[in-house]
Amino acid sequence: MTGPRHSCGVVGVSSKFDVVLDIHRSLRMIQHRGQESAGISVFDGSGVRTVKGDGLVQVALNENNMKDLHGTSGIGHVRYPSASSKDSINAQPIDMHTSHGTMSIAHNGDITNYSELRTNYLGQGWSFLTSSDSEMMLKLISKYMQQYKEPIKAIRSMMSEVDGAYSLTILVNNRIFGVRDPYGFRPLCIGNTGDGHILVSESTAIESLRGKFIRDVMPGEIVEITDSKILSYPNPATSPKAHCMFEWIYFARPDSVIDGREVYLVRKNVGMILSKECPADIDVVMSVPDSGRSHALGYAIGAKVPYEEGFMKNRFVERTFILPDQKQREEAVMMKMSPIKSTVNGKKVLIVDDSIVRGTTLLKLIGMLRDAGAKEVHVRIGCPPVIAPCYYGVDMKTREQFIANKFSLDEITRRMGADSLGYISIEGLVKAIGLPESDLCLACVNNRYPTHIKGEVHRFQSTLQDDFDKTGQSKCKK
């Protein structure tokens, strides 16, 4: 895995029957969105009960700690934290006992004005048990429940105070709500399970329950699901959209549909467009498994060159990004991937990956291909150069970590030991996704932000101060 790391996935289920196993299965289907912790909250008839723990779903939520967990409405969460919030205390769902009953929240995204809100409310005498922005949202809902005595108005008032990215499932006693921020940064969809309804980050979880996908939650919409109906409370205002392009490029499963666009087809389109923007004289196309596979297949189709598996992935090696230092992470790459010599020996090979952040993994992989006898190694990337930090839930926080900010295209090519390097253009990426550019968040590749971030350029400003090419032209070194 060479791409950036995502933060979380959420689910909520209301049914005529017990929902615990359905939530557990759904969390396993979106496990790729977070592997640090997992949790489930259900209403058991008298109150909300929560079980959560560190690790993968089957470890954090096991037969022992779930044996007494039962209820017909509940929510769940899988989490990959940013570096600033790795404490186990931040595992979700987060509960709160109020005069209106128990509430629980699961959150995917990042609140960009969290620090200001926390400072303000600490000054008013509030206390916080975690460093999570999810706790802030839950406390704001509780605050407005005191005023309105009703969840919809309380949630809408919370939304008026927070800014940034959030897809939420919320349990208020036995009622389940789904919330998506007005920009629609993070995905959230609705399905019918046959015995009830589900809210979940990706549609593939609905299919795992043999359910039927209904639609995406709209940006700024609040929905309430029951076992028999869906109640919708649309965004009362018109807001510009900012769907995160990385959902299609890297985060989501290929078999998911995000805002009407199947992820697999988008990635294949990316590869086909990339083959036209950045052609190469090659014998074979291969991918960096698993995320680059669909991109590579599209490239092979577009270039009319054979696609072959060139790396065997060891799925039982520890995840490299959790190791304590860079040297260990780089050594682990060699344990995780091994080249298939018959694919590469004596051939001009082109490898396709979803993105480059630091470039260290590709450096190792290219060296392994050379050692396996590759005559030439060309690299193509299904994402424009990552040049700017993400404030909306992706673990890319500083410009200093991006190789594209440190070196020119020629220098990156030489440092990685490649014969050529090419990125898809911004224009090509937008075309592959099939949504208007104005509906996408491209901040990490064009340095223009959908929300107002202190010290950053808003996407509707007329000037952009940056040293990297923002023209959207194809960036290829041949």
Protein architecture, described:
This protein is an alpha+beta fold. 30% of the residues lie in helices and 24% in strands. It has 17 helices and 26 strands. The strands form 7 sheets. It has a 7-stranded antiparallel β-sheet. A 6-stranded antiparallel β-sheet has the order 5-6-7-8-12-13, with helices on one face. A 5-stranded mixed β-sheet has the order 17-20-21-22-26, with helices on both faces. Helix 9 packs across helix 10 (293-303) and helix 9 runs antiparallel to helix 16. The longest helix is centred in the N-terminal third of the chain and has 16 residues, at 133-148. The chain starts with 7 loop residues before the first strand and ends with a strand. Mean pLDDT is 90; it is low at 318-326 and 463-474.
Total of DSSP H or I helical runs spanning 4+ residues: 17
- Based on secondary structure, the structural category is alpha+beta
Task: Tally the structural domains.
Answer: 2
Uncertain segments = 318-326, 463-474
Q: Provide mean pLDDT, rounded.
A: 90
What would CATH call the class of the largest domain? Answer: Alpha Beta
> Globular, elongated, flat, extended or rod-shaped: what is the shape?
globular
- Ends distance: 25 Å
Strands across the major sheet, in which order? 3-2-4-1-10-9-11
Which CATH architecture of the largest domain? 4-Layer Sandwich
The total beta strand count reads: 26
Q: What fold name stands as the CATH topology of the largest domain?
A: Glutamine Phosphoribosylpyrophosphate, subunit 1, domain 1
Radius of gyration: 23 Å
The CATH superfamily of the largest domain appears as: Aminohydrolase, N-terminal nucleophile (Ntn) domain
Helix content: 25-40%
- Percent in strands: 15-25%
Tell me about the largest β-sheet: 7 strands, antiparallel
